[in-house]
Task: structure prediction
Amino acid sequence: MGPLQIKDILQTAPENQSVVVKGWVRTKRESKNAIFIALNDGSTINNIQAVAEPGQFSAELLLTVTTGSCLKVTGQLIASQGAGQTVEVKISDIEVYGTADPEEYPLQPKKHSLEFLREIAHLRPRTNTFSAILRIRHALAFAVHQYFNDKGFFYLHTPVITASDAEGAGEMFRVTTLDLNNLPRTEEGAINFKEDFFGREANLTVSGQLEGELGAMALSKIYTFGPTFRAENSNTTRHLAEFWMIEPEMAFFELEDNMDLAEDFVKKVITYALINCKDDLNFLQNRLTEEEKSKPQNERSLPLLEKLAFVVDNPFERLTYTEAIDILLKSKPHKEGKFQFPVGWGIDLSSEHERYLVEKHFKKPVILTNYPREIKSFYMKLDEDGKTVRAMDVLFPGIGEIIGGSQREENYEKLLGRVKEIGIDPENLWWYLETRKFGTAPHSGFGLGFERLVQFVTGMGNIRDVIPFPRYPKSAEF
Ligand code: ATP
Ligand code: MN
Result:
């Protein structure tokens, strides 16, 4: 169906057979003996070279064949004369589908900064870097579904619009149809949300977990994979206002099982990319190596493929929060006062602490468990000591937290106590609490930020560059 794609044509044995190639011009080069057109259709990082003889086409036509223009090229597939490719197309006919005036088209064949490309997000998928990232992103998403399907999980579609403001994971985006210039008021003068679309306050979800738990209490093993929204004004390289989260939730899993699953899961999806995205990963690796040339030797990181293989091949380090604090207290940066935020039992680890543990101390991914209850969510299961909860965060080099999860509190009284403790009205969560009232069971789950995974696998420094159209403070243009 449809024409052959460049990816397939490049794999075809050249037998002078006629071929049709459709794609966008990356470069055009004219020499005394030939005109070379490199075409790409996004099916692969590799271009196909199409060759014409000088004088074969009118100067007028050739003037419209410029970087970014779109062509249909008909010709013969022949063994390539030059180095760098095995096959090429001997052109017999060119049809220009769409021109791209070189005076206006911003993606000329030269290096563009990632910041500049963000300003032309409508065109950046046409660059090698972004097309590679988007293909890898696709492969990872596919691997996620494949992994869970193979393991007997069901894909549960949790709502995007939610009326439970209970997660407390971050600031929420409000969903309303009220007229902002003419808000209905209660007798006390507050906004009357009873008149709003849902008859109550509604927001975009910050996590599908609570509904995910409802699914796990019926189907045993579910996962969600959907858009997630946080209106936190954090202008970091690891936060988006709209991102995709993968949240498995499993009945009868305790913390240990949860950690085993998280570790196996990320290793398997990374392995999938290593096997299926070789060309794109190689391209990105070279790009990074190039970028790192300006850095001193000791600040350079492992080549991308080695880094990924290392994560896949080595067990993650597992330790408790308390043990991690001890390590940080004994660390050089702590003793020399180099940490920006002070270390002590009870602190919420900041990314400098997480990165010290992962990048300097253990030099591999780390799973931290049993955090103080005060810094974790109400639904996490209390440990026997009553001080810590059965939380687990997976920390990755260069990224920090990639996964946050826990064993859930399955005891109705304890959960209700925690709900009240943090000031949530139990009425708002009656449906969630009922799972603990009717056939409760030990269960666990976690959330993986998909873009952080894509960031790790592609080696990209900024999360805004691993999603097609990033949303962040003051930016939602495309
Ligand atoms: P962080 O401390 O990094 O802000 P968090 O504790 O808010 O993370 P969770 O609420 O546990 O994160 O969410 C689960 C996962 O979702 C995180 O481990 C991370 O991978 C991802 N994540 C969280 N917030 C964002 C965001 N704003 N943009 C992209 N991914 C995010
Ligand atoms: Mn956060």
Summary: The radius of gyration is 27 Å. The longest helix spans residues 128-150. Residues 170 surround manganese (II) ion (ligand 2) (CB under 6 Å). The mean pLDDT is 95.
